[in-house]
């Protein structure tokens, strides 16, 4: 009788390590692998059908390992199940075209969205699901545990300890799930050094370290040139600050990426200061180190910023402002996407972001036809955190507004997160942001999804903010009211024009809809002069020369 | 002109380190502090008003540091703001009586709940808020960042690297938030060794290591003696398995602590097997290593278990079943409360737990008069995860049931988490579990809370399971229906007796209420013989002698 095997994972792990040692010979020294041995290493440790986590992050990319993976022999390594938060590089899809990989679970595919949709439609790829980041990380510990993780760090020492630098990002979550489930962790590093500035990942958790031929790719995704902020965006930012942030006393928040929210950041030390709001709003942030936040930080608005990742060019500024950012004893940022997403979910009172489309129920989505992209962190931060139990004035007020006059389970008092969708009524190419039906419904059919890819559900949205005004959906009591509230700020879109003017005026009387004039805002004051920085150069100046924008953002 | 100070935290950190070096002299060697220097160390590094995170965990306690903190001079160290997930030890409250501490933010106070309520009523303590665990950890990175963390690990090496052993629990979250915000981390350890079995926390993140005079306290909170499981609990477990787990195809789940859920675990290899459910339900768990799960693991039901913490006596069993548990290369468990709570929130389809009281809206709470206890992980796991975007059959079916026939925002298709409250209609001393009004409302008044302390809101509960049957609240369409559905399973409690029998029969016809007979369950089959283990000894036998229960659970 065979004893049941309960330590198969450990045995397979040892076998894989032995295969690597055999294949690499002298090109493996301790945990250190020679750069030219990347492909043989992958061929030695990977088996068909393995679940592989490739660190395609929001910003940092394990690009050398991604490229090496495209070069393995598909006869030996095939049908991999890739789990990764972001599909950013062509290599991330190349592996599916060659049969090296077959199945995919992910969060965001940004620039690869169109190619991904094509691959899905031709059967070249099976999509498991599209997740929000924290949800994907959570599944790493339940039913999407990686067998092999391919990650990126800035440097390693000779023992295999890793220094991620400011872009720690997803690495701790990936490595923990893999290293403690009998998996193998392979890290590409920019350099191997004698002594690391600090240790972000202990060598214990790492099996192989391989110096990459060039530094790993990092995208400056969160840099917005103030020169491109329009006066409409200034107006909307004024409404956000006066009509929402001040109204609810929002002290802890997250901003989505974009010029809309960059405008808010740049108005704090000017317009916010005029309104006497310093110290009353926007003190604690779950946010990457946005350069647009520099003027507010310098003006003393910001007590703390915890970050998902870093931002290129902000390194020296962060080091010189360590009271504000989470930094190591070495002075550089320690970011952590998992903890920052938890912070965005549970410790923030407000999430504000943009969308491409919103329907009459308030459902919004950035999914558009012919592209499968996912939503990154928005679903997690743009959902009411119903497990939250600590109170704050902003959260209590939102919850009270939503429940006022209600009975039964829906009337039981609780707080609510403020979830604001900030959007101009028309986006580029005069596409209306407000629609009767989201493209998501067609996309669901095209891609055979179980549900339409909705980024933020109408049930979770509390405010819609356009250049025409703010619609407070918390105060709506029926589907019809909600619909007219949305139409009432939808401007000259077809949806906006089809409003019932009488109902909309009634909603305005009740404060459900607020126009700039209702907020005491004169649109003529909404000029670019209100921006605390009007150019990249202004941001550099505001930072005392500490901020060093990437070349593409400099014209001097 | 003074340059603005932006690195105050770093400067204060260095000053505190220097004070410690001065105060301790030869009793500080590198990061190693002599055991008898604990109090002087704390007096040297702590300042009045500091925010201090004391590792009072669900299980593991930094008890030596807790005791040392009670011994500091209140003239030097006072008005601390304590942040800790669990108040378990008398010392955790002693510091408030002496004025050493003043303010408290926490998650759970279990055995100290009555004393805590008294201290609050006499003004001896200011409560910030009561959180669910992940929410508290999230705030460590936003507005409750610790200045000093007092944590517990099993061992350290001479550099200060920490080995937590199986009870990693909260330590990584606490240490990361503190070490990367200019704070100080002090770890008590059971021993200092030359080489650690593995590194759980890098020395880089730790400032002081202090050997405790005896091993840190760990409570075996998750051990339930099968001998104490009643036949009513067997009946309820049969209903849970057949009426909910099988009905929805629940593969990923979390169980609360208690005999009710232990009964389910012990019925899987017997009753579950009879129903042909092996491989169809209960494959992936977010769960501590419950001894009651041993028979199901041995019978091949369980693919994976990720754990919040460990459980005393399960060490050798876990090591021998490393395919199932998350273990390090050293073979011992790596638990992690933050990641496991994220898993419970986002990667599980079902949470099932018990409560002390439920009202007619379905709101439930374990809060009772004269005690302030908090709810630990239940609010996080017992809330619908509205940020979730990946589909599973269980989640889709629950969402479809909740939205069937609905229009508008509430009718937009989405999935829903199954949140089951499993409770006998009368608890000990014949207290009814169903009440018109929760004690939470009175407690809110008594303690001056912003909201009543509700553990799980009626809006999030999907099923109520009693010995009388299952009420599926997903199918209720009005407050009245929900009320009658709850009354309809509330047995001989006053709430149950006041049911409208006609409406309840109608709900039964519609499948909203299901009796055992409706599920094809004969209550006469619900005997203890169905339990895969009927005693602690059976559990040990099922484990092949690998499980070693703590002495208090052994009568042989």
From TrEMBL, chains A, B:
The protein's superkingdom reads Bacteria
Among SUPFAM superfamilies, the record links this protein to:
NagB/RpiA/CoA transferase-like
Q: Where are the transmembrane segments?
A: none
Task: List the NCBIfam families.
Answer: mdcA (TIGR01110)
- Protein known as: Malonate decarboxylase subunit alpha
Annotated source species: Pelomonas baiyunensis
Q: Which gene encodes it?
A: mdcA
């Amino acid at each position: 009788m065979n004893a049941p095997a309960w330590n198969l994972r450990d045995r397979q792990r040892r076998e894989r390590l032995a295969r690597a040692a055999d294949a690499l010979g002298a090109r493996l020294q301790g945990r250190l692998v020679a750069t030219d041995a990347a492909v043989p290493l992958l061929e030695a440790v990977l088996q068909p059908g393995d679940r592989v986590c490739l660190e395609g992050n929001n910003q940092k990319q394990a690009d050398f390992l991604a490229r090496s993976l495209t070069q393995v022999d598909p006869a030996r390594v095939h049908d991999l199940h890739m789990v990764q938060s972001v599909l950013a590089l062509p290599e991330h899809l190349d592996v599916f075209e060659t049969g090296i990989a077959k199945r995919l679970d992910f969060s965001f595919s940004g620039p690869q969205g169109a190619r991904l949709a094509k691959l899905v439609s031709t059967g070249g790829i099976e999509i498991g699901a599209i997740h929000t980041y924290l949800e994907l990380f959570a599944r790493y510990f339940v039913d999407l545990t990686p067998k092999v993780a391919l990650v990126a760090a800035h440097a390693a020492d000779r023992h295999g300890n890793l220094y991620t630098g400011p872009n720690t990002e997803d690495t701790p979550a990936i490595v923990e799930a893999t290293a403690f489930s009998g998996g193998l962790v392979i890290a590409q590093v920019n350099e191997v050094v004698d002594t690391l500035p600090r240790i972000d990942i202990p060598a214990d958790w790492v099996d192989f370290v391989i110096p990459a031929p060039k530094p790993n790719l990092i995208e400056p995704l969160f840099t917005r040139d103030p020169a491109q902020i329009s006066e409409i965006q200034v107006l909307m930012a004024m409404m956000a600050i006066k009509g929402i942030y001040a109204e609810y006393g929002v002290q802890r928040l997250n901003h989505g990426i974009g010029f809309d929210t960059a405008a808010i950041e740049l108005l704090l030390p000017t317009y916010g200061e005029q309104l006497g709001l310093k110290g009353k709003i926007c003190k604690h942030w779950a946010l990457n180190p946005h350069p647009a936040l520099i003027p507010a930080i310098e003006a003393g608005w910001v007590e703390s910023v915890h970050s998902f990742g870093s931002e290129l060019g902000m390194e020296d500024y962060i080091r010189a402002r360590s009271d504000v950012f989470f930094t190591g004893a070495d002075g550089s940022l320690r970011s952590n996407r998992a903890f920052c997403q938890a912070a965005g979910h549970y410790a923030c009172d407000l999430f504000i972001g943009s969308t491409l489309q919103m329907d009459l129920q308030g459902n919004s989505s950035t999914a558009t036809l012919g592209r499968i992209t996912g939503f990154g962190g928005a679903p997690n931060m743009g959902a009411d955190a119903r497990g939250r139990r600590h109170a704050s004035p902003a959260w209590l007020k939102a919850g009270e507004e939503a429940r006022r006059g209600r009975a039964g389970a829906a009337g039981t008092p609780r707080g609510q997160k403020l979830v604001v969708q900030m959007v101009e009524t028309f986006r580029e190419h005069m596409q209306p942001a407000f629609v009767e039906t989201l493209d998501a419904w067609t996309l669901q059919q095209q891609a055979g999804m179980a549900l339409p890819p909705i980024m933020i559900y109408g049930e979770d949205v509390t405010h819609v903010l356009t250049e025409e005004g703010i619609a407070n959906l918390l105060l709506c009591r029926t589907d019809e009211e909600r619909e007219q509230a949305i139409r009432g700020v939808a401007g000259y879109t077809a949806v906006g024009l089809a409003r019932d003017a009488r109902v909309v005026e009634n909603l305005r009387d009740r404060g459900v809809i607020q126009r700039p004039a209702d907020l005491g805002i004169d649109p003529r004051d909404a000029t670019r002069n209100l921006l605390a920085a009007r150019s990249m150069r202004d941001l550099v100046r505001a930072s005392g020369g500490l901020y060093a924008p990437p070349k593409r953002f400099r014209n001097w």
